[in-house]
Amino acid sequence: MAEQNWWQRLNGGLRRTSAAITGAIFDLASKRKLDAAMVEEIEEVLIRADLGVELAGKIAAAIGEGRYDKMISAEEVKAVLATEVEKVLLPVAKPLEIGHQRPFTILVVGVNGSGKTTTIGKLAARYHAQGRKVMLAAGDTFRAAAIDQLKIWGARAHASVIARAPGSDAAGLVFEAFETARREHADVLLVDTAGRLQNKAVLMEELHKVVRVMKKIDPAAPHAVLLVLDATVGQNALSQVEIFHKIAGVTGLAMTKLDGSARGGILAAIAAKHTLPVHFIGVGEGIDDLAPFEAKDFSRAIAGMS
């Protein structure tokens, strides 16, 4: 039942994306038989939907294969779209495995407004439901709102929160949280961070400092670096992956706000270009609206297949 509910949310969340893609293609296909010019037009539709130039070309070519001088049906287009997107996504659809280290420390990075703090809260709830002891570190010390938001999520997710006054040293806060998590035998420590890309040098130095203090306690920490991306920013998400991968050594991705965008195709473009594991996707604000990424489900939803 829970899986069915998630499928309904995912399908509903990606409806704007699937409608933008399939609607434009059907509009073209209903007017004339398929030819080389139409394949090019289909490719342009897919590029506008943020699927990326390379993947758009592959999908358009696959739609055209063996169908020249024929009318193509909506179902044919959907099936090809789902198949080609799934091929790209299958290699990157990997769960975030909680390793043997205790606390297993996940550094969560991303620009302000990407849904980072909310994602941490939802992950905390997920891990608590699995019977794990979870602790949160309010490492985005520049924004009072982020600290307050994390405390609210901590209460909802039954996770203790280590926080200091706004403006405190982030690295010092993370060191304290790590030591406390170890002392109190926490299973998972989720660390929030600042995401001010306006000054990359300052952000880079701060994140490097946070990582350095973690390594003083555990040389293997952080055990995962999760980048949270906002689907509504489209192509900007690609540059964010590049920047944060350089700054923080990203090990996996979570994409949020897929329900608020017609640009969900950007996840496929990112997968094609960067091949980083995609761990989670979010389609709403609720505590259960984040789930492990499944390539087949996402591909079918993006193609508007019920």
What's the SSE blueprint?
Layout: H1 2-13, H2 15-29, H3 36-48, H4 53-64, H5 74-89, E1 104-109, H6 116-129, E2 134-137, H7 144-157, E3 160-162, H8 170-183, E4 188-191, H9 200-217, E5 224-230, H10 236-248, E6 252-256, H11 266-274, E7 278-282, E8 290-292, H12 295-302
Parallel strand pairs: 1-4, 1-5, 2-3, 2-4, 5-6, 6-7
Antiparallel strand pairs: 7-8
Helix pairs in contact: 1-12, 2-3, 3-4, 4-5, 5-12, 6-7, 8-9, 10-11
Folded structure, characterized:
With about 300 residues, this protein is an alpha/beta fold. About 50% of the residues lie in helices and about 10% in strands. It contains twelve helices and eight strands. It has helices spanning about 1-15, 15-30, 35-50, 55-65, 75-90, 115-130, 145-155, 170-185, 200-215, 235-250, 265-275, 295-300, and strands at about 105-110, 135, 160, 190, 225-230, 250-255, 280, 290. An eight-stranded mixed sheet has the order 3-2-4-1-5-6-7-8, sandwiched between helices. Helix 6 (about 115-130) runs parallel beside helix 7 (about 145-155) and helix 8 (about 170-185) runs parallel beside helix 9 (about 200-215). The longest helix is centred in the last third of the chain and has 18 residues, at about 200-215. The radius of gyration is 21 Å and the shape is elongated. The chain starts with a helix and ends with a helix.
